[in-house]
Write a structure and sequence with these properties.
CATH class: Alpha Beta
CATH architecture: 3-Layer(aba) Sandwich
Structural class: alpha/beta
Strand order of the largest sheet: 3-2-1-4-5-7-6
Largest sheet: 7 strands, mixed
Order of helices and strands: HHEHEHEEHEHHEHHE
Shape: globular
CATH topology: Rossmann fold
Radius of gyration: 17 Å
Number of helices: 9
Strand content: 15-25%
Number of domains: 1
Helix content: 40-55%
Distance between the termini: 35 Å
Amino acid sequence: MQQLEYTRMAEFEKSFWWHKGKLFLVRNLIQIYSEEMKRPLEILEIGCGTGEITQSLMEFGNVKGIDISEEAINFCKERNLVNVVLGDINNLDISQEKEKYDFILALDVLEHIQDDLETMRRAHIMLKKGGYFIVNVPAHKFLWSEHDEALHHKRRYHSVEIKQKLKDTGFEIVKYSYFVTTAFFPIFVIRTLTTLFKRNAYPKTSYIALPGFLNSFAIKVMDVEAKLLTKMKLPIGTTITVVAKKV
């Protein structure tokens, strides 16, 4: 992404309903699947971006972030995050990271990586036995729009595709669901109309700053969705969430 997009992301992550919903979801999943571990966790976030989630998860234990963007790492350092690494996860030396982590997160990251299977293989190597790989990816190829182009996405995923890739790299699927269910149809309409009638010379993300009261309401809705997802499979959404286990 360009510097402008990272600047916007850093600002939006503080309060934007979509980012807050992702944070609710990840925290809920870690709390549920770490119950049997009874120890401070070792967590790795692949594609930590500007560090909002990395910072939030530090209460669970030791959290390390990796990102390919120097701009993103600089934002992390502005948050006083010191355990962050600049680099491509598929090229880094992970010989000292084997079976180190209880949780590895790839939250809206795999769609940026050409060889996503290699990333999954490496996550499997770095996880402890019984550890969890939590994945969020954009759903539905028909939702492809300039939003994806602005974020340099390689693909959007079908649920069968992401689950099969994880199985092929040695994981057992313990949970999967759609997410961002409530907002699916408005997002579908906006992105369809944008694709048909309003193409920009330089692709832009479709982040729309909502009025304060509406953003606060959307955050509450996402909190409910995040809680529901831990108990059931949501039927549709703009995101696919998968929890995969190293057995």
